[in-house]
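Weekly structure sync - notes
Attendees: PM, LS, DV (DV joined late)
Agenda: review two folding runs queued last week.

Item 1: First target. Sequence and structure tokens pasted below for the record.
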Amino acid sequence: MTTEEKLKYFEESSLEEARKQASAMIEEYKVNLDKVEKEHKATTLRQSDLQLKTESDNLKRNNNMALSKEQLQIKRKITQKQNELKEKQTSNWKKYLTFSFGNSKEKQEEKEPQEKEKINPKEVLKLTEESLQKKYIMAECCHPIPGDDVLGYVDENDRIIIHKRQCPVAAKLKSSYGNRILATEWDTHKELSFLVYIYIKGIDNMGLLNEVTQVISRQLNVNIRKLTIETEDGIFEGKIQLWVHDVDDVKTICNNLKKIQNIKQVSRVEE
């Protein structure tokens, strides 16, 4: 091979090698460009998601603040009512007992005689929907509902008042007026509704109040009458006043509320 041929071969080989290197560089550039573009899109998407979450959290926080103010006003009204009731507690016995002092006989004589239902203390008293509406009185001190362990007390006007057995007032009546106590038995069929109070406590977090109302109103189809919640140091406490048919309804509500994350305590309480 002549020198000229060698030079020509070397030139062609060099050009071919240069073309391959150029092609490789172009492909590598394209790959890097695609990678940069994808990373840019991902970063932009993350920033958009973060901005959306921040705005959403701010909106929820503002809503919760407004709701907390409203709940505080409701709590103040309830506290005022509770204080009024406490002032009347000293006269609770007057609702269930009347002592024969002063001119009580004169007042009884002024009343026209009425035919009264004969009560046999040896028979078990059936608590039906009709009798609860027309004959018997549910004690305001303990708010019994169907399914509770209850007893009847016959007052001086022959009215029958239904108490929970563990009610402090009922315990006093039983020890002092045992001859006026009646055995009772529920015979209801979920036709009447009764007010109960549910106490809840747990760890405060965003959206908790919404979960509670969703479980009670939508999942269980129970009407809420009042709801008060207050938080302190990340712990919330609240009372829910709602309508139920019987003790089974209360158990179902409590069991479902306990399933909500961060709720640690649920129980039925008096007012």
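Item 2: Second target, run right after the first with the same settings.
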Amino acid sequence: MILVTGGCSFSEPISPWITTWPKHLENHINPTSSHHTGMGATSNGMISRSVIHKVSQLLKENNAKDLLVGIMWSGPDRHEVFVDKKDITESITHGMLIPGENGKSLGVYNPYNFINEDNEQAWLLLHPHNSGDTRSEAWYKHLHNKVGAYINTIEHILRTQWFLKSHSIKYFMTTYTGEVLPKTLPIKNFFKTQSNLLPELLSENKHTKHLYEQIDFDQFLPVEGEYEWCRDKSGLEFPIKNDNHPSSDQHLLFTKEVIVPFCNLSVKAQIT
């Protein structure tokens, strides 16, 4: 089996002493190869593109039936743009965080090695907390819209599902918190404010309803989100005060009690 995973900082360790669910899953199934495409603070567009890019590469030399893909979707308020390198004035390391003033990062340039270093274009991630980055500040001041952000996230999910289904690839999906795809409101205060939420359900909003109904939720883990499961079901404390990222033990329990049973029963990956 070949394992491909994607996500944000809930999938990519925020600290060297934290082991996240992709690594725990890799340790559990011992695949012939494992490919994690996730990165902290990434957008759902980049999660989708990175997974599709990696799977496309793997399909050139591998059978689709040998692949298992796991994706944890991130916040809908993150965004990415395709830019010319000449428009980026900072000194940037390929695939690394852009350094900003006072130790703050301004975004991510060309993550996942989508493009050769000799190319003149690259992806740039925008984030609402990238203070000091004029591009992010301009985007969130003039162009960001909550409904549009949810529309984009749903379309990224649908594109990824359709791609994986078209190749008959086994996969599962989930979210890092229920606020990514809220099925009921109100969500239990994952964020300090409810600014990311719509005033109504995605399944009822006139701009999202027709898209939301196309999502195959049978491929989603039966949880609200990993954060909510760890908070309510793990019986363990989060490792960092005022930070909602799970501990290694919480990630391990989530893998063993949620991901593995789901893969065996619903995805039929037989990874026990």
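Discussion on item 2: Helices lie at 21-29, 44-59, 134-143, 146-166, 209-212, 226-233, 248-267.
Action: LS to circulate a short write-up before next sync.
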